[in-house]
Amino acid sequence: MADEADSMNQDESVRMIPDESAGMATGDEPRDRSGPIAELNRLSGQPERKSWLDALNPIDNGTDPENARLRQANSRIVNNRGTHSAVMDGKFDHYGRCSVVHGVLEINNEGRDTRTTGLKDLSTIYNRIGLQYTDLRHADPRIAQRIESTLGTGETILNVGAGAGSYEPRGKKLTAVEPSVEMIKQRAPSDVTVIQGVAEDLPFADKSFDASMAVLTIHHWSDHRRGVAEMRRVTRGNIVFLTYDPSFNSFWLLDYFPEFVKLDEKNMPPITDFEKWLGAVDVEAVPIPRDCTDGFLAAYWQRPSAYLDERVRAAISSFWALGDISDRLKRLEMDLRNGAWEQRYRSLLDLDELDCGYRLVVAR
Length: 364
Description:
- The protein is α/β, with parallel strands linked by helices.
- The protein has a single domain, classed as Vaccinia Virus protein VP39 (Rossmann fold), CATH 3.40.50.150.
- The chain contains 16 helices and 13 strands.
- The chain has a nine-stranded mixed beta sheet with strand order 2-3-7-6-5-8-9-13-10, with helices on both faces. Strands 1-4 form a two-stranded antiparallel ribbon. Strands 11-12 form a two-stranded antiparallel sheet.
- A hairpin with a 7-residue loop joins strand 2 and strand 3.
């Protein structure tokens, strides 16, 4: 890609940001085909992948020269109205394979690097989390239906903090904003316009979208109020948040990891704040199915042994905020082995779904 980068850099208004994942090994490494990852793939109907590279590209194993050429040719970013955010040019080859982007461009009218602190911080976090993110984070269709039903009938949808695009409704004109290159890479082939950016500084004109959505992301924003105000500015109709109520403390996992309580109080905005920022809002509990296919924090409430799996924890951002939790993991493992967990939480085993504190907040 050196030739392409050199030609781009002839224009002083373009800056190349290296991709942190460049240079990783690409061999087909042995893969554990049991445990929570395999279970989530089975529940969501996803095929089992052979190596971590397949998470980035479901077909290309990194050794085909033709695919290498396609990746190089398709790894380009285009300007978006001269703003500071970069736009992923969604290129795929004739087999539907997604090109692997090796760099991200930051572009503005004056040729300056305009990345914000929030963009840098979120990129760092999710560039680490994102390496095997899509192995474990498949949109749960029941939760997806709840989200889609609240977006309204509009055609243009903005997804803020979009991750790999798990809950984006089909049949709509989607624009996604996401700070992490690694997360953007793992998007499935689609015609979605993807912009690297942050909620607090959305690069769109006022009232550009019929509706907007933010799914399990607001706790990562550096300025909740500003991010919500930006979504209101660019949205004509409904704004939908899937978030967590920090006042909720009835989830059994908190008995083993009490640090999550203070973490949520620090990072999660109180539900009442949404009304302060947006006016009247509708708030609905979103019970989590016992076989939830999206591996977020409470997804395994009826499958407690999953939390012992390092790969499961690696796809959950809350665990990255904790320090050494080895003693807590040992306690959970011991309670599962000796039956203490089952005895203490026996009432959960007969439930099909559970309120774990997740809330759908809708401003109309």
